Amino acid sequence: MALDFGFGFIAGVTGTIAGYPFDTVKVRLQTQTLNHRLYTGSLDCFIKIAKQESILGFYKGMSSPMFGVAIINGIVFSIQNVSRGFFTNPDSYLTLTITGAIAGGVQSIICSPIELVKTRLQVQGIGQGRKLFALSTHLYKGPFDCLKKSYDRRGVRHGVMRGLSMTFARDIPSFAAYFPAWQFFVSTVSPTGQEADLPMYMSLIGGGFTGICAWTVSYPFDVIKSRYQAAREHVYKSVWDCAVKSFRTEGWQVFTRGFLPCTLRAVPTNAFTYPVYAFLKRTFDKQSDEYDNDGIDMTTKAVNKTKLSSTTTVSPPSITPIQSI
Fold first, then answer.
1. Widest CA span of the chain, in angstroms?
2. Which domains does the chain have, with CATH numbers?
């Protein structure tokens, strides 16, 4: 369990680094308004960030989700696996939907302040180069400073946990769709219907597919969450006020803004997360087997292996691509 958590942490960090530029573009497009429109689209946003802020502009606020993803992944998959044990048919689509929703709801409590910090740091210093940003006066010095100032101004409920309701509204349907989508992909594409028999490249495609499915059902809530968390406290009275004002001033299209970079983000995030996790797990398992061969009495091992094979059938371990925030 501890090793899986460590492997998940390393893989999650790698996946976050790979997909984070797309997330920054997504948040920038989500939070801009018609009265203060800086980017005409996803490509324009990419180009302007690269020119004006260098490659480091894509990674503002990354430390918060990078280290939080390990905790979140551990919570999501632990709760989902445990809750499946309460159902008579743990592999049914209904069970995967319900347990995914439960896991998404629980992890939202930790995810919400991480998202708050990430969003506010991503929209800070827009258009400023590295040197200008360092010399200018900006509101937050880093993740901890952002949390401290949010707490000092509005406390826990309205400060640190600002946008929690929208995080619930986003993550509950998102994870309710994520696990059934992965099961559908595996059962459809795998030659045996088993996750362990998927080729590596198909696992990467499956990770992107499940990520896109999860974001599609929850994306409008993510737009409102980002706008509400990024805005100053006096701009919106509540998330409902944010949704109404956004719709009245910018139309229904506002709820799809930034969807393209969001879906593109799912590809590199899962493409890097899964191989790193699988490589670490295979390497450790190989080393463990070599240690067993050198350090354990082979007669005893053979007897134990015979007993095990005569009583139980051991299935190969499965690895599910991790959905990063």
1. 77
2. 2-308 (1.50.40.10)
